[in-house]
Amino acid sequence: MYGNAQALTTYGQYELCGKILDIAQEFGCRSVFCIDGLRSEPSDPVPELYCAATDPQTLKKSLSRNIKKMRGCIFGAAGLLIGLARTRGMHGLCLLVETPGSYPDAIAARSSLECLCDMLGLKVDLSMLEQSAESTRKVLESFREGRVGGESGASRPV
C-alpha cells in the first residue's frame, strides 16, 4: 500500500493504522514492512539505509545486510504501524532511506525497494523507477554544475 498523506490527528493516526493492521491480519499477514524517508543530505550516490524492528531476530537480519540501526523516533504511520504490529504479535520492520526530502527522490526509493525485495526474495521490475532515478540524477547534476535546463550560465539572474 502507498500513501503520501497522514491522518491529521493522533486519534486519526491510531484509527487508520489499526484498520490497516485489521485488514492485514484478516489476510493472514504475520509481518509488516514500512519504507520511509530519513531527511538528511546523502553524502554518497547510494543513500544509507536505517532500520527499526519489532523484535531482535528481524533486527539481526536487517543489520546483517549492512543496514544501520535507527536512533531516535520514527514519526507518522511508518513508525506507528510497526509499533502497533508488535502489540498484535506481528513482526515489523521499518526501512528508512536518506533523502533530502525536498523533491520526489527516485534514487532513494530505488535503493530502499531493492533492499526490501532482496530481503523478501522478490523479483520486481524496477526499470521504470531506474529511468526516473536517472532523470533525477541528471537534474541534480545540472544544478551542481550551475546549469538550468541543460544550458551553461551560472551568471544569469534568477
Number of helices: 5
| SSE pattern | HEEHEHEHH
- CATH third-level topology: Rossmann fold
CATH architecture verdict: 3-Layer(aba) Sandwich
Q: Can you identify the CATH superfamily?
A: PAC-like subunit
Number of domains: 1
Beta-strand content bin: 15-25%
Question: Runs with pLDDT <50, length 5+?
Answer: 150-158
Strand tally, please? Answer: 4
Strand order within the widest beta sheet: 1-4-2-3
**Helicity level, as a percent range?**
40-55%
**CATH class, please?**
Alpha Beta
Biggest pleated sheet: 4 strands, mixed
Gap between N and C termini: 40 Å
Morphology call: globular
What Rg is obtained from the alpha carbons, in whole angstroms? 18 Å
Would you tell me the structural class of the helices and strands?
alpha/beta
In round numbers, the mean pLDDT is: 84
Topology:
Layout: H1 10-26, E1 31-39, E2 49-53, H2 56-63, E3 68-69, H3 77-87, E4 91-99, H4 106-120, H5 127-144
Parallel strand pairs: 1-4, 2-3
Antiparallel strand pairs: 2-4
Characterise the protein shown here.
The chain is an alpha/beta fold. It has a single domain (31-143), classed as 3-Layer(aba) Sandwich (Rossmann fold), CATH 3.40.50.10900. The protein has five helices and four strands, in the order αββαβαβαα. β2, α2 and β3 form a beta-alpha-beta unit. The protein is globular, with a radius of gyration of 18 Å. Residues 150-158 have low confidence and may be disordered.
